[in-house]
């Protein structure tokens, strides 16, 4: 098993997307990339902790590659929106890839460059690529939030 961590807006919909992806064995939503230890959802929502809402993905590399996970990431949010996704705004909703290995970093950078050169987006890709920091698991009511409510997505 390997770990991947992505921030792509509100973590509820991002988690639901990855949970439906073949080869993904487990997901958890939480916070990464800030300076406050053990942040709460309410604190992260103030945009004062530096954290992003993220989904940590456990995947089987024999069933899905990290590159394929990156494709899921790129296809399911707008990587040209700085510190926002749709109606959600603030640094906690930023587009970010947190890499866990040098190989993930290289794959993420190459993937981002390929997307930028593809012409798929008119605006520049603003997704940050940063080393994984401590993962703070979000409160239990956020885990599988949409699934618990019988919803598949929260995107319009």
What does this protein structure show overall?
By secondary structure, this protein is α+β, with helices and mostly antiparallel strands. The chain has a single domain, classed as 2-Layer Sandwich (Peptide Methionine Sulfoxide Reductase, Chain A). 28% of the residues lie in helices and 25% in strands. It contains five helices and eight strands. It has a six-stranded mixed β-sheet, covered by helices on one side. A two-stranded antiparallel ribbon has the order 4-5. Helix 3 packs across helix 4. The longest helix has 17 residues. The model has no long low-confidence stretch (mean pLDDT 94).
CATH class: Alpha Beta
Order of helices and strands: EHEHEHEEEHEEH
Low-confidence stretches: none
The number of domains: 1
Strand content: 25-35%
Mean pLDDT: 94
Per CATH, the superfamily is Peptide methionine sulphoxide reductase MsrA
- Write out the strand line-up for the largest beta sheet, numbering strands in chain order: 7-6-1-3-2-8
CATH architecture: 2-Layer Sandwich
Number of helices: 5
Cα Rg: 14 Å
Q: State the distance separating the first and last CA atoms.
A: 33 Å
**Number of separate strands:** 8
Query: CATH fold name, please?
Result: Peptide Methionine Sulfoxide Reductase, Chain A
Alpha-beta classification: alpha+beta
Overall spatial form: globular
Sheet with the most strands? 6 strands, mixed
Helix content: 25-40%
In a nutshell, what does this entry contain?
With 156 residues, the protein is α+β, with helices and mostly antiparallel strands. It is built from five helices and eight strands; from the N terminus they run E-H-E-H-E-H-E-E-E-H-E-E-H.
């Amino acid at each position: 098993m390997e770990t991947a961590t992505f921030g792509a807006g509100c973590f509820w919909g991002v988690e639901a997307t990855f949970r439906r992806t073949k080869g993904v064995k487990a997901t958890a939503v939480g916070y990464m990339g800030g300076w406050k230890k053990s942040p709460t959802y309410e604190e992260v929502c103030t945009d004062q902790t530096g954290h992003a809402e993220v989904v940590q993905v456990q995947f089987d590399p024999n069933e899905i590659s990290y590159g394929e996970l990156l494709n899921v990431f790129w296809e399911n949010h707008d990587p040209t929106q700085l510190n926002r996704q749709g109606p959600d705004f603030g640094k906690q909703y930023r587009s970010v890839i947190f890499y866990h290995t040098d190989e993930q970093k290289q794959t993420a950078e190459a993937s981002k460059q390929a997307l930028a050169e593809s012409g798929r987006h008119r605006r520049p890709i603003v997704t940050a690529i940063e080393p994984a920091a401590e993962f703070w698991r979000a409160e239990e009511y956020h885990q599988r939030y949409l699934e618990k409510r019988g919803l598949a997505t929260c995107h319009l």
